[in-house]
Amino acid sequence: MNPPTSSDDNDQMRSFKDFLASYNKLSELCFTDCVWDFTSRNVKSTEEQCSLNCMEKYMKMNQRISQRFQEYQMIANESAIAAAQKVGSVSR
């Protein structure tokens, strides 16, 4: 097995930064939407349930966007391959 390269390290760092950005965005959105009572040190059950629902919805939305992006990429790749094959057969 080859030792990790600088490129691998950069890719891992970029992935980790992307994860942290997504996590921070999720935390900020759900906190802003769900936590409204600052008069007590305890988290109310309604706030906790709202946060859980918010997190679940955000994760499902993120997963769905990723799936649609992958589908789009596959279609774009297939179109590019078909166009390249068409150009290759025409130029002969």
- Sequence stretches where pLDDT stays below 50 over 5 or more residues: none
Structural class: mainly alpha
Order of helices and strands: HH
- CATH 2nd-level architecture: Orthogonal Bundle
Structure notes:
The chain has 92 residues and is an all-alpha fold. It has a single domain (8-91), classed as Mitochondrial import inner membrane translocase subunit tim13 like domains (Helix Hairpins). The chain is 82% helix and 0% strand. It contains two helices and no strands. Helix 1 crosses helix 2 (45-90). The two termini are 43 Å apart. Heterohexamer. It is found in: Mitochondrion inner membrane. It holds the Pfam family zf-Tim10_DDP.
Keywords:
single chain; mainly alpha; Helix Hairpins; 2 helices; 82% helix; Mito_inner_translocase_sub; translocation; Tim10-like; Mitochondrial import inner membrane translocase subunit
